[in-house]
Write a structure and sequence with these properties.
The chain is mainly α and 57 residues long. The chain is built from two helices and no strands. It is extended.
């Protein structure tokens, strides 16, 4: 059984913010690059994704 709220870190929308979270809380750059993640609430991301649906996973 997990503690209340631990599922928040498993939300895929959070992936886009992981590098910033690491920098903020650890004051370090991430060791590994993040998988490119698009937030479809951002108009530029949404346009990019919709134009390349056949190329993205």
């Amino acid at each position: 059984c997990n503690a209340i709220g631990t599922g928040v870190a498993d939300d895929k929308a959070l992936y886009a913010y992981v590098p910033r979270i690491i920098r903020y809380y650890l004051d370090q750059d991430p060791i590994l690059n993040n998988v490119e993640t698009f937030l479809l609430t951002e108009p530029s991301h949404r346009e990019y994704v919709l134009d390349r649906l056949d190329q993205l996973v």
